[in-house]
């Protein structure tokens, strides 16, 4: 580009010189580099080839008029040359910048992952007793939560696996024993890449059932403390003593307060924050994975929600729904393997788990205990994906008086906890 401008300058100046001073045979000629004398002679008549040295610039003496013309031409063309050079420089810089930005954009696109990644530290990948249960045939991942019919769901999933002992209650803990119950677990039986694919694939149903913390905690208290004295004393009380520190006097204090709901909430649940019967539902799933939970059922509508879930998933083998295969019949409370009946799944709760927690809430909850639960299980109430039916026991002074009256009657009847 510079050579082109230089050439144009030479032609313009030479032409003006000839027009203004034809009688003068001495010219100022500045040929372009690599432009031979013949080309210049053709461009500028009157300039002999002998006056031009090939591929070199030569100067002749200039008249006063020619000097003036030269200065005018330089004055006019120099800004144009400078502008052209600056534009060329800026253009080259912009090209490099655009190339760098385009390269960065391509790198960003290549590195962009629209889905979260599974890490070994993820809650859903923790190798623990709360690991989700998987059924490959029905593409189901079930996150089992304590005190939300988890035992019944494990029986159902064993039946879906065509396990002949799914209804054998001779060992009440068999359904919960990984490695013996025939169930597969997300954190134990699948690689990180497999879990990532399953969790982000819409063909997989990621199901969880939730419950308001107030009735759930009371259900845990009635089941684990009130109804199972031996297990509470040997397991919970001894663990509490190690956590609290103390002697046999402290241990006896725990025994004596086995039926004290306030003691249970303030001491036992705080001592064992990872117990699947007491920890918040929110804590079973990492925050980044909650948006991928595509089925949420509730204890308040357990029968209808569980039926809806198992009707929505079908076998990859024969196309039969889980409900048709294992949910529509054979679910009497006793779960006898030799008995056939028309009872549907979760139409009745098994008798050994029927604690009636909601019916007893006013008997056990005081206004202070209700506030304690609302504060310490706030994660469940603030989880944007969970929508519990509102349970507010004490909305006003009248409710408080009614609660006191109910608890006073229990004391008078000798039925206080």
Helix content: 40-55%
Averaging pLDDT over every residue, what do you get? 79
Largest sheet: 5 strands, mixed
Q: Estimate the strand proportion.
A: under 5%
Strand order of the largest sheet: 3-1-2-4-5
- Number of beta-strand segments: 5
Query: In terms of structural class, how would the helical and strand content be classed?
Result: mainly alpha
The ordered H/E elements are HHHEEHEHHEHHHHEHHHHHH
**Rg over CA atoms:** 43 Å
Number of helices: 16
Query: What oligomeric assembly is this protein in?
Result: single chain
Which regions have little confidence, pLDDT < 50, spanning 5+ residues? 1-6, 15-59, 105-112
What topology emerges from the helices and strands here?
Layout: H1 2-20, H2 37-43, H3 64-111, E1 133-135, E2 140-143, H4 150-160, E3 184-185, H5 186-189, H6 192-200, E4 205-210, H7 213-226, H8 229-244, H9 248-256, H10 261-271, E5 295-298, H11 302-312, H12 322-327, H13 361-364, H14 367-376, H15 378-382, H16 397-412
Parallel strand pairs: 2-4, 4-5
Antiparallel strand pairs: 1-2, 1-3
Helix pairs in contact: 1-3, 8-9
């Amino acid at each position: 580009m510079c050579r082109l401008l230089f050439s144009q300058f030479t032609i313009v100046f030479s032409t003006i010189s000839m027009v203004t001073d034809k009688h003068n045979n001495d010219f100022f000629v500045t040929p372009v580099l690599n432009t031979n004398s013949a080309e210049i002679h053709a461009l500028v008549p009157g300039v002999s080839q002998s006056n031009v040295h090939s591929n070199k610039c030569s100067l002749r003496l200039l008249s006063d008029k020619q000097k003036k013309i030269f200065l005018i031409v330089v004055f006019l063309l120099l800004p144009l040359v400078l502008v052209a050079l600056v534009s060329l420089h800026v253009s080259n810089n912009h090209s490099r910048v655009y190339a760098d930005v385009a390269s960065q954009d391509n790198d960003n696109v290549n590195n962009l992952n629209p889905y979260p990644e599974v890490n070994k530290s993820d809650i859903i990948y923790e190798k623990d007793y709360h690991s989700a249960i998987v059924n490959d045939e029905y593409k189901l991942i079930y996150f089992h939560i304590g005190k939300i019919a988890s035992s019944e769901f494990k029986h159902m999933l064993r039946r879906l696996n065509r396990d002949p002992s799914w209804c054998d209650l001779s060992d009440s803990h068999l359904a919960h024993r990984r490695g013996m119950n025939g169930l597969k677990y997300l954190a134990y039986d699948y690689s990180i890449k497999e879990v990532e694919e399953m969790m982000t694939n819409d063909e997989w149903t990621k199901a969880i059932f939730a419950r308001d913390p107030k009735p759930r905690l009371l259900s845990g208290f009635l089941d684990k403390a009130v109804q199972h004295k031996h297990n509470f004393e040997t397991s919970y009380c001894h663990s509490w003593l190690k956590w609290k520190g103390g002697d046999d006097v402290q241990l006896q204090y725990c025994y004596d307060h086995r039926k004290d709901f306030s003691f249970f909430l303030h001491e036992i649940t705080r001592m064992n924050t990872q117990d699947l019967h007491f920890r918040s539902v929110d804590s079973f799933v990492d925050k980044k994975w909650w948006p991928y939970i595509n089925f949420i059922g509730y204890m308040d509508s357990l029968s209808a929600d569980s039926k809806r879930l198992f009707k929505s998933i079908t076998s990859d083998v024969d196309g039969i729904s889980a409900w048709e295969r294992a949910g529509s019949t054979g679910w009497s409370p006793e779960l006898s393997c030799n008995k056939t009946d028309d009872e549907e799944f979760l139409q009745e709760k098994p008798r050994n788990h029927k604690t009636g927690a909601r019916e007893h809430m006013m008997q056990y909850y005081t206004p202070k205990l209700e506030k304690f639960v609302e504060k310490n299980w706030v994660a469940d109430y603030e989880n944007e994906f969970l929508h519990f039916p509102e349970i507010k026991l004490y909305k006003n002074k009248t409710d408080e008086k009614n609660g006191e009256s109910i608890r006073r009657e229990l004391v008078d009847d000798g039925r206080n906890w």
